[in-house]
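Checklist before submission:
- one chain only
- standard amino acids only
- sequence pasted in full

Submission:
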Amino acid sequence: MNSTQKIALVTGGSRGLGRNSAIALSRKGMDVIITYHSRKEEAEKVVKEIENNGRKAAALQLDTGDVSSFDAFVSQLAGVLNEKWNREQFDILVNNAGFGIHASVAETTEEQFDSLMNVHFKGVFFLSQKLFPRIADNGRVVNISTGLTRFVIEGFGAYAAMKGAIEILTKYMAKEWGKRGIRVNVVAPGAIATDFGGGAVRDNDEMRDFIGSHTALGRVGEADDIGGVIASLCTDEMGWVNAQRLEASGGQSL
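Returned file contents:
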């Protein structure tokens, strides 16, 4: 990447892995724009924390499941980039926004399926497409998958299938966007104790114990275990890593 100040855009950055990733990126010297769906106050707290790390930051509202809103979002983003950085482009895109639904294949409704599809696959596909001209040459894209594309825990069939699609999409983005020097990788976290999926892993001691017993490092993951991995993939030191699936699960279900 060139020598100008690096700017990262992290979707779903007001909480969980997105928040942790945004702060980790700022610690590595990058300015950060986060998006939030509805938690404006939490997003503003993240902005303040990034600014406390000596970096510039901004927060924009975005529903990543609503493709029809993307043109307006890109226009708003362009305004913020110009106003705050005097730039037309940014350098790093982290497609993090998401949510979980726990339902068996037999019980998943069409409404649940569509909501997962819109955020986890369709939204990522078309938001990346819309942002492609705004990503600087030699930039980085990090998509987020899940360990559930490798191992199976019942009740996540639809969610994991969307993430499997993201892993394939990552390779195609890397191949096509490599012509501009843009590297595209995918991080696949294992079970993480956040409010994801209603906080099932965080709040259910039985589930935490079960997952910990099936993980080489003996515990479930925390958000702090993932943000640094994502941020590291965006550094020049990791610049030759491209089109890869990097699992960060502590050795779950080996």
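Reviewer check: Residues 7-248 form a domain with the Rossmann fold fold (CATH 3.40.50.720).
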